[in-house]
């Protein structure tokens, strides 16, 4: 911890990945829809590890209020959920993929600016392919990369389909190069 950190409350600032990596989904979406029939389900979520401090809760509450307020103009609705591991999900619903990306980014920015960037785990965007099968795009904040997740039943995934989706979108999204870091997220509440 440096001198300024001790004066400013000891919150550790992490240098995060470039924010434009999250926004890459907005342009990649055109390729997904037009070329491959993969469409948004109109939901996204950001998952983070909550901290039981007044400061942290204040940031989250304020961000939820802002999203609800701007949602009146954009049509975005939000809800929250806690999973069995104690992680909190802020869930956004909107048919416009750009509104979803902007909303998720607003939450992550608020937590990062508040000094809690290390608590943010991932953003998840729900899609479906032309056969109606779920396809999730997961953005890992710690690594700054995207990867597809295609569940194939209870606690099973379709690795072949994930590689097909990677081939479709590689070059438009910064895809996690290490396949062993394509962690499944079971029980995604979207």
For this structure, what is the CATH class? Alpha Beta
Oligomer: single chain
Which second-level CATH architecture applies?
Answer: 2-Layer Sandwich
At the fourth level of CATH, the homologous superfamily is: BMC (bacterial microcompartment) domain
Overall 3D form: globular
The major beta sheet can be summarized as:
6 strands, antiparallel
Q: What level of helicity do the residues show?
A: 25-40%
Structural class: alpha+beta
Average pLDDT confidence is: 88
Query: What's the domain count?
Result: 1
Number of strands: 6
How would you sum up this structure, described in words?
There is one protein chain. This protein has a 6-stranded antiparallel beta sheet with strand order 2-3-1-4-5-6. The protein contains 5 helices and 6 strands; from the N terminus they run H-H-E-H-E-E-H-E-E-E-H. With 190 residues, the protein is an alpha+beta fold. The protein has one domain: BMC (bacterial microcompartment) domain (Alpha-Beta Plaits). The chain starts with a helix and ends in a 21-residue tail after the last helix. Helices cover 37% and strands 23% of the residues.
Any key phrases for this structure?
190 residues; alpha+beta; Alpha-Beta Plaits; 5 helices; 37% helix; globular
Topology overview:
Blueprint: H1 3-7, H2 20-36, E1 39-48, H3 54-74, E2 77-82, E3 88-93, H4 97-113, E4 120-128, E5 134-140, E6 145-149, H5 159-169
Antiparallel strand pairs: 1-3, 1-4, 2-3, 4-5, 5-6
Helix pairs in contact: 2-4, 3-4
Task: Summarize this entry quickly.
This protein has 5 helices and 6 strands. The protein has 190 residues and is an alpha+beta fold.
């Amino acid at each position: 911890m440096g001198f300024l950190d001790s004066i400013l409350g000891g919150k550790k600032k992490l240098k995060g990945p470039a924010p434009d990596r999250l926004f890459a989904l907005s342009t990649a979406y055109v390729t997904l829809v037009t070329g491959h029939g993969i469409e948004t389900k109109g939901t996204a979520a950001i998952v983070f590890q909550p901290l039981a401090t007044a400061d942290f809760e204040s940031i989250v509450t304020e961000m939820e209020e802002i999203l609800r307020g701007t949602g009146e103009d954009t049509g975005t609705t939000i809800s929250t959920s806690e999973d069995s591991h104690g992680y909190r999900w802020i869930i956004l619903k909107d048919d416009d993929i750009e509104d979803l990306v902007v909303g998720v980014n607003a939450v992550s920015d608020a937590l990062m600016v508040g000094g809690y960037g290390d608590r943010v785990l991932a953003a998840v965007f729900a899609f479906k392919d032309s056969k109606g099968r779920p396809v999730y795009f997961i953005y890992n904040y710690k690594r700054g990369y995207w990867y597809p997740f295609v569940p194939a039943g209870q606690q099973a995934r379709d690795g072949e389909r994930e590689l097909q989706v990677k081939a479709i979108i590689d070059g438009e999204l910064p895809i996690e190069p290490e396949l062993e870091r394509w962690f499944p997220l079971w029980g995604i509440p979207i």
